[in-house]
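Bumping with the actual sequence this time:
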Amino acid sequence: MPAGEIEAAVIYQLRGLLRAPKIVVRTWRVVRQSGEEILEAEARAALEWLDPLRDELFPAEQAQIVQLLVERVDIRPQGADIRLRTEGLTSLVSDLHAVRPEERTAA
């Protein structure tokens, strides 16, 4: 399978995973455990904001985000398994949460 197809499939799956309620709740709980005051809705909004923001970034920045979020991808004949980096998700949510809401809507 060509690398470009694998990358496109990983990004497609990653976009879905970042919206999955289970991932949102787990990420929100870990961020709160780190001492940051954040509502679940704010964590969800930060993860959802990442999708359109990603399209505006340079390819090198897009690759950095994927490396931050994805620990491992296992390719099998039946499909692919993607293992996320929990610390990458929580770091990203914390960083995006720090951006004021009006700046997120302007982007």
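The tokens above came from a reply further down the thread. The chain has a mean pLDDT of 82.
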